[in-house]
Amino acid sequence: MTLRIRPPARCYPANGEDMKKLVCAGEILVEIMAERIGQSFLAPGPLVGPFPSGAPAIFIDQAARLGQPAVLIAAVGDDDFGHLNIERLRAAGADISAIKVHGGAATGTAFVTYETDGSRHFVYNIKQSAAGLIEIGTEARALLASADHFHVMGTSLFSPETIAAARAGIEAVKARGGTVSFDPNIRKEMLDLPGMREALHFVLSKTDLFLPSGPELFIFARATDEEG
User: Fold this and answer.
1) Strands 22-25, 99-102: pairing kind
2) In what order do the strands lie in the sheet containing 47-53?
3) Which pLDDT value is given to residue 221?
4) Could you give the CA distance from residue 39 to residue 19 in angstroms, rounded to a whole number?
């Protein structure tokens, strides 16, 4: 017997006017995974992938699959990894018109291995990749001019350029009376990046819907779970 998995059904509201345009700006990358738990990147080993990835791209992909008008402002290289991601988003129904393709830069990558205790270890190339070239260009400004909601992933605040893109998106949507959601999705090792803490608090101050995991609350509260 052959088991066939259907793609998720699109959930359109009865009234098309109720559809809100979601916009996110941030990194696109591919993820390449170690095949074995506990496998180290200090020696050759089997890998699986590439898988389309990047937290903002995953968010927009899922929103588009649910039938929501969804836009990603991003940048990729003119390479197989970049085209893999673009085609994945196109197939999901996302608006890809604000994704820039750069011939002189490589698409971002993340190599990940799972440790025996369940934690993950990453080797990234994001800031120095095409993802670091994100900007609010003509296409992005046009899309933001009709956007109802802007979503921020904390992982996207990794450089002054990406922080500027997030701020521009927030300010454009807020000026139209729109809303902002914020998923910190942050790791402690990122907090020392230049401008990261200031950017996190700026985004939080503009946020209507905050979506932290448990440990991420302590980043903003400056507390620990031992403090009652």
Assistant:
1) unpaired
2) 47-53, 29-34, 108-114, 120-125
3) 61
4) 45
The 3 state secondary structure assigned to the chain is: CCCCCCCCCCCCCCCHHHCCCEEEECCCEEEEEECCCCCCCCCCCCEEEEEEECHHHHHHHHHHHCCCCEEEEEEEECCHHHHHHHHHHHHHCCECCCEEEECCCCCEEEEEEECCCCCEEEEEECCCCHHHHCCCCHHHHHHHCCCCEEEEEHHHCCCHHHHHHHHHHHHHHHHCCCEEEEECCCCHHHCCCCCHHHHHHHHHHCCCEECCCHHHHHHHHCCCCCCC
Q: Give the pLDDT of residue 11.
A: 41
Rounded CA separation 68/152 (Å): 17
Structure tokens at 195: 């401008």
> 141 pLDDT exceeds 80?
yes
